[in-house]
Amino acid sequence: MTFELSDRVQTVPPSGIRRFFEIAEERDDVISLGVGEPDFATPWAARDAAITSLEQGKTSYTANRGRRDLREAIADYVADRFDLGYDPDEEIIVTAGASEAVDLAFRSFVDPGDTVAIAQPSYISYEPGVIFAGGEVLPVPTDEEDDFRLTVEGLEEAGADEADMLVLCYPNNPTGAIMPAEDLEPIAEFAREHDLTVLSDEIYAELTYDGEHTSIASFEGMRERTIVFNGFSKAHAMTGLRLGYALGPADAIAAMNKIHQYTMLSAPTTAQYAALEALDSCENDVREMVAQYDRRRQFVLSRFREIGMDVFEAKGAFYCFPEVPEGFTAEEFAEEVLREQGVAVVPGDVFGAGGDGHLRISYATGLEDLREALARIEAFVDDHA
Ligand code: PMP
């Protein structure tokens, strides 16, 4: 028997990142700068809280929207860190990773035929998410010349004034770009002027190395048209615990909760205890990890410059996005440096418009490995000069 696959599933190609992992898994000498997850373990206090909750037998479902004490802690945290005011009862939903929240938003707000503008290069899940929801993707490329920041000109050129929704991710995966308040303000104005709903993925908000993160929802008139996504995977090194959340107006969060309550019931309970502790007592752990990422960032940027590869000054997340030297496409470079030198990187094309000719380098890897990986990339570039 063969299954008849839905058109939506068939339209979406398999992840371009996975293919490289598969090649990398065939050998044991590969250093991977390919994965987008922290190399740190979850801070001990958060792990301990999870263990204690299990010991106490706290293994039931929680409220659909997540434990109330966790929602309260999230409300306090986002108020304190990002100047965002959300009501824990009506305007916050705790999800199985930010990934679930992103999917819920597409399914809650996108009708077949709606156009969703996505600032690109960007995280690989938005485009499939839009397609699974029946929407149409409008890529809005960003340029290295603008430090990969989104501009009103870019939005206009792409025709985003006609779109229904705009998806943003700053600090950005894969470029490491950030959007300072002064650059975000005209984007907020554009969204208001053209009546766009905004989905703002701020999962890397804690990971900025030059200036503080500003949320687009904090601008006047934006809170009512924006859903903010955040979570514990990146700053708190909790990827495997699968915990994220969305913030938004009550009716929007209620719509997302309608899908969530039928499809997920509630986010992982053990992870909710870990997250509560993470917000309560792990600020110093986050600060220490951020300091280490920053050291690695500076090291990687300076090594690429020494090697002679152009790289813009990534200021957030844990990625940098160097240009591929002449004579290679990004895909060729990634494939050959993996085969010849055993270094896994991701070609920029997989992240959409504006990503070609670049490589995504994750520095969520220890300095020793980064040193060795950069030496191998240098050898590769020298061999092919
Ligand atoms: N958004 C972005 C921009 C990401 O890079 C990732 C993880 N790579 C996610 C969301 C998914 O996060 P989570 O683990 O919370 O589902």
From TrEMBL:
| Molecular-function annotations in GO | transaminase activity
State its Enzyme Commission number(s): 2.6.1.-
Transferase as a keyword of this entry, yes or no, is yes
Q: How does it assemble?
A: Homodimer.
Answer yes or no on keyword Iron: no
Alphabetic keyword roster: Aminotransferase, Pyridoxal phosphate, Transferase
Instruction: Specify the signal sequence span.
Output: none
Q: Where is the Aminotransferase class I/classII large domain positioned along the sequence?
A: 29-377
Entry-linked CDD domains: AAT_like (cd00609)
**Species for this entry:** Haloterrigena gelatinilytica
Question: What does the sequence similarity comment in the record state about its family?
Answer: Belongs to the class-I pyridoxal-phosphate-dependent aminotransferase family.
Please give the cofactor(s) recorded in the UniProt entry for this protein. Answer: pyridoxal 5'-phosphate
Question: In its UniProt entry, what is this protein called?
Answer: Aminotransferase
Pfam families, alphabetically?
Answer: Aminotran_1_2 (PF00155)
